[in-house]
Amino acid sequence: IIKAVDSARATLRIAMYELNQQGVFDALSRARKRGVKTQIVLDRSHVYTSGYEDDGVTPRKPKQMVVDLIKGGFDVLLLQGRKGGIMHNKFVVVDEGLAQFGSYNYTQQSEDDHYENAFFTTEKARAAGYLRYFDYMRGLAEEPDLEKLDEVVNRTEAALPEADDAEPEAAGRLKPPPPDPPQDAETPIELNGERFPLQMFSPNAGIEAALIRAIEAAK
Q: 179-183: long-range contacts at Cβ-Cβ below 8 A with a sequence spacing of 24 or more?
């Protein structure tokens, strides 16, 4: 992933659920310094954190690298789903031609402890699909609120509010429900009489139905 980011010459789009890998952060910084147009979508709940750490005492706060991205001048927007949902995507598109995607979070836990996967492709149709979805997410995302971020970073136990999910009209929720994301019109994948697109994106994409069709097509 670091090599992919370092290879960028013109554009870099990255969707991150969370971030605590120094190498990835440094690669993003290098890309920006050499003039690569770098756009980021971050999961909102990893910026405006709530609740406590595992010790039950320490207020949960955003990772320092997340704070540094926002305060360091990167083009960052925050996205959260409706009713406390999350932006759970993890993918990079480099120069509109190389796409990396999969379950792998950009965290050291994913590298050292988790069972994750990451895929790389230069298939034009797949990269184009991820670009369309990235633009869709950016269109629904919000600018970071630096004052709110400072409040979260400086929280103490005594000042810890109720969890954001408890607020039905909390800022940043997508109300009304978000429009359906762009989907692939082509269905180039064929198995036993059933056809599928290269990729599908939530919400409201019919992914569950496609999975059922795939299972029922098995011989």
A: 180/204, 180/205, 181/133, 181/136, 181/205, 182/129, 182/132, 182/133, 182/136
